[in-house]
């Protein structure tokens, strides 16, 4: 009996639909060569939804998202929507989806494929074999805490306030995901805060330590201050496996770790919530990049971030880390064989279009699945 999986595919705008075409081919290949049967439902989010319904996402799509086993999203946004009121802009569709599904855990892997180690802003020997996951809390902390606002003072000055706030539950539910991810990898978590100067950081450290000793003592837990973590990431990034941190520090640290890989078109991401009706964690997978209006419609975008988003779906939602690695290995092989899209082009390599890159990854994956290789 095949395992049935319902995927909601939201290609979105700009290069979104272009990078989704290779993913559909790969899903077709998985349906033919594995014991999983994906059914894909496709719908609108972002500017294309606004064009059709005057809304960046409809309630019907939100309901479908809640009922699905997971969502794959391309990208949203285009210059022609920039003068719309905030609530109607394409990006609001994505934010609404994250909010309605309460996707509080944002996972951003930063893996350096060896054949692209030269693309990093750091020396190749520092980043070669680097493989980090930054787990960022996404729905709490200083971006949402109250009080917030800009207030007038009696003496005519103004005061701007934001509040960093975390509760036990918010820290523990994220920590649990962090330890679970580390358990599938190299079993090390760096929990990052500023407990030296912030009470919310003291609580973060206490609750993470308690959770660790109660449920995850086999994982290696280290605590690190956020400023030191930023420095260590550019000094010796290979010391990290999973970085567990709040919204603000995660925002900054995930961008630093992304830059270490040197190529935006290669970076996938996942946002996870609680276990839903489908008995799986609610989840949304998307490339880190946006809709790239400057190259949209030219069939030159790199589809690998989108393909690796599917690989993350297999790992985190289907809990099938073998299939996830097989997809990653197909990408790695294609890069080793010198195939490149324009954004990652190097000397003596073969330049491919978006669809051609999709085809060679699919072909390599087919070979790996047929031989049942890892
Ligand atoms: P962007 O990520 O779309 O593009 C930045 C640069 O990287 C561009 O030069 C682009 O051509 C290049 N690039 C991005 N993805 C690529 C790929 N797969 N292959 C090759 N090159 C790639 O960021 P931006 O230009 O700041 O934003 C463009 C639009 O995307 C805006 O409307 C923005 O709001 C939206 N956006 C959406 C998301 C999302 O959907 N999650 C994220 C970021 C930005």
Helix/strand order: EHEHHEHEHEEEHEHEHEHEEHHEEH
What is the fold-level CATH name, i.e. the topology of the largest domain?
Isopropylmalate Dehydrogenase
CATH-defined superfamily of the largest domain = Isopropylmalate Dehydrogenase
Strand residue percentage:
15-25%
Oligomer designation = single chain
Distance between the termini: 23 Å
Largest sheet: 10 strands, mixed
User: Strand sequence of the main sheet, in spatial order?
Assistant: 2-1-3-12-11-4-5-10-8-9
CATH architecture of the largest domain: 3-Layer(aba) Sandwich
Output the CATH class name of the largest domain: Alpha Beta
Helical proportion, percent range: 40-55%
The small-molecule ligands in this entry are: nicotinamide-adenine-dinucleotide
> What form results from the Cα inertia axes?
globular
The count of strands amounts to 14
Rounded radius of gyration (Å): 21 Å
**Class by alpha and beta content:** alpha/beta
Overall number of domains: 2
| Poorly predicted spans | none
Number of helices in the DSSP assignment? 12
């Amino acid at each position: 009996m095949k395992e049935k999986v319902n995927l909601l595919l939201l290609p979105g705008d700009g290069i979104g639909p272009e990078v989704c075409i290779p993913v559909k081919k790969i899903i077709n290949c998985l349906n033919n060569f594995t014991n999983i049967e994906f059914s894909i439902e496709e719908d609108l989010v972002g500017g294309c939804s606004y064009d059709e319904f005057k809304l960046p996402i409809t309630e019907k799509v939100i309901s479908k998202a809640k009922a699905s086993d997971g969502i794959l999203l391309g990208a949203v946004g285009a210059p022609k929507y920039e003068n719309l009121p905030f609530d109607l802009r394409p990006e609001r569709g994505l934010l609404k989806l994250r909010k309605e599904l309460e996707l509080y855990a944002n996972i951003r892997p930063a893996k350096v494929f060896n054949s692209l180690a030269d693309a990093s802003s750091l020396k190749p020997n520092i980043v070669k074999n680097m493989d980090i996951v930054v787990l960022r809390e996404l729905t709490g902390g200083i971006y949402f805490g109250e009080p917030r606002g800009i207030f007038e003072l009696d003496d005519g000055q103004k005061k701007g306030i934001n509040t960093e706030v975390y509760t036990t539950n918010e820290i523990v539910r994220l920590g649990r995901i962090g330890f679970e991810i580390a358990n599938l990898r190299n079993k090390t978590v760096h929990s990052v805060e500023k407990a030296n100067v912030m009470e919310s950081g003291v609580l973060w450290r206490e609750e993470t330590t308690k959770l660790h000793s109660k449920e995850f003592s086999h994982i290696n837990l280290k605590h690190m201050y956020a400023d030191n973590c930023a420095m260590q990431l550019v000094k010796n990034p290979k010391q990290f496996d999973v970085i567990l941190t709040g919204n603000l520090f995660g925002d900054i640290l995930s961008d630093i770790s992304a830059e270490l890989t040197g190529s935006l078109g290669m970076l996938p991401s996942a946002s996870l919530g609680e276990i839903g009706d489908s008995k799986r964690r609610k989840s949304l997978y998307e490339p880190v990049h946006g809709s790239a209006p400057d190259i949209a419609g030219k069939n030159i975008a790199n589809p690998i971030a989108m393909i690796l988003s599917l690989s993350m779906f297999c790992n985190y939602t289907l809990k099938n880390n073998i299939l996830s690695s097989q997809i990653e290995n197909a990408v790695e092989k294609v890069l080793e064989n010198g195939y490149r899209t324009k954004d990652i082009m190097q000397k003596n390599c073969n330049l491919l279009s978006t669809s051609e890159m999709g085809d060679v990854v699919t072909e390599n994956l087919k070979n790996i699945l047929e031989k049942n290789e890892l």
